[in-house]
Amino acid sequence: MFDYFGWGSPITIFGFVIIVLIINGIFLTLRTREKHKTMREILRSGQPVDPATLKSLGLCDGQDNGDTRSSQAIAGLILLAVSVGLVVMAYQIQRVEGDEKVLPIMMGVAAIPALISVALLISAFFNRSRKSDAD
User: Fold this and answer.
1) Are 58 and 52 in contact (CB under 8 A)?
2) Integer angstrom CA distances of residue 107 from 6, 82, 92, 102, 110
3) How confident is residue 55, by pLDDT bands cut at 50, 70 and 90?
């Protein structure tokens, strides 16, 4: 039904990714607007703005919010799970189709998020070490 010159599946898959990114951008914009609205209300009311308030609103420019390490670790673990999922999917495809080339090809594809995952986990480890050295 939606097969545009044999490109129906790729258009659907990449179109879904683009839609998710657009929705994420919209919600990020709305969240930022609300933070700025809150900050404007604080300034209008004449309340003092201390660094803790800025940090709680996430409006500190160029400063680490303290959650970079955990964010990197979570992203690394998610990418590692994606890599394992790709290998399991390749195994199942190979088992059903009987094609011996599927698993090695998909393992190469799965290596991309796996290596990014390793880099993020190492970076999270070094961010933790640097933060404890500063304390």
Assistant:
1) no
2) 26, 12, 13, 8, 5
3) confident
- Lookup result for tokens 């394992």: 84
Tokens 């999917």 locate to 89
Q: Is this model's pTM higher than 0.70 or not?
A: no
3-state secondary structure the chain: CCCCCCCHHHHHHHHHHHHHHHHHHHHHHHHHHHHHHHHHHHHHHCCCCCHHHHHHHCCCCCCCCCCHHHHHHHHHHHHHHHHHHHHHHHHHHHHHHCCCCHHHHHHHHHHHHHHHHHHHHHHHHHHHHHHHHHC
